[in-house]
């Protein structure tokens, strides 16, 4: 027969639901941050992978679904379900700490991008040997609203992607892409790391609450059961 665990008080139950809603919100935020990073196409221009961004989306979706399901479910759960949910949470926590570590690492790599490195990519684009790199560079400059490594003078022939109005080639972006990387892209990667790490810590806290209440409930039940 399946044993059940029930939170002792409604105060604790409501507190746990609040933490789960926060966890679900952080999970959705990590998905949004990851999607925002992927949309920039930075990995095709810079020597920095997009692994953390992709993993944050996958893990964020899984964590959000898990937390929302827990919030909407009955507080009375079987021991099997509790163990299963706990195991999934543990795996998510491990994945989130891994993502956070890589995101911090990649954030530092983005901070270290130099003008010379970006200029070498521009030269590869202008050589015309890698058409896909040109497309990715255009997408990158449009998304980041930047032009060249330092400014537009890095290009022999300024591409349309350097202009806010590409059809009429007006309103050229004055900010260099290296500067944009350091003030926008690198902080975004760092924020992703902070979000997934905070989510992992919150999930650990939720797991501890479950463990404490689970042990206390069974201890009290055993204490009052007739011998």
UniProtKB/TrEMBL annotation:
Coiled coil: none annotated. GO terms for cellular component: plasma membrane. This is Tetraspanin. It is a multi-pass membrane protein. Signal peptide: none annotated. It is found in: Membrane. Its main location: membrane. The chain crosses the membrane at residues 12-35, 47-68, 80-104, 192-215. CDD domains: tetraspanin_LEL (cd03127). The keyword Transmembrane applies. It comes from the Eukaryota. It comes from Tetranychus urticae. The gene is 107366756. Keywords: Membrane, Transmembrane, Transmembrane helix.
């Amino acid at each position: 027969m399946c044993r059940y665990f029930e939170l002792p008080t409604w105060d604790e139950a409501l507190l746990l639901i609040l933490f789960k809603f926060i966890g679900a919100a952080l999970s959705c935020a990590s998905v949004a941050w990851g999607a925002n990073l992927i949309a920039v196409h930075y990995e095709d221009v810079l020597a920095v992978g997009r692994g953390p961004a992709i993993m944050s989306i996958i893990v964020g979706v899984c964590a959000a679904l898990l937390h929302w399901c827990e919030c909407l479910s009955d507080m009375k759960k079987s021991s099997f379900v509790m163990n299963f949910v706990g195991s999934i949470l543990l795996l998510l926590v491990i994945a989130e700490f891994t993502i956070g570590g890589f995101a911090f690492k990649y954030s530092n790599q983005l901070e270290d991008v130099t003008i010379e490195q970006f200029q070498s990519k521009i030269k590869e684009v202008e050589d015309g040997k890698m058409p896909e790199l040109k497309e990715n560079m255009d997408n990158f400059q449009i998304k980041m609203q930047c032009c060249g490594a330092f400014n537009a003078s890095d290009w022999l022939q300024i591409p349309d992607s350097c202009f806010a109005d590409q059809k009429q080639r007006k309103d050229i972006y004055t900010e260099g892409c290296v500067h944009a990387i350091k003030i926008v892209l690198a902080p975004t990667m760092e924020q992703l790391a902070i979000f997934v790490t905070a989510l992992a810590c919150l999930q650990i806290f939720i797991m501890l609450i479950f463990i404490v209440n689970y042990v206390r409930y069974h201890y009290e039940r055993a204490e009052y059961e007739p011998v």
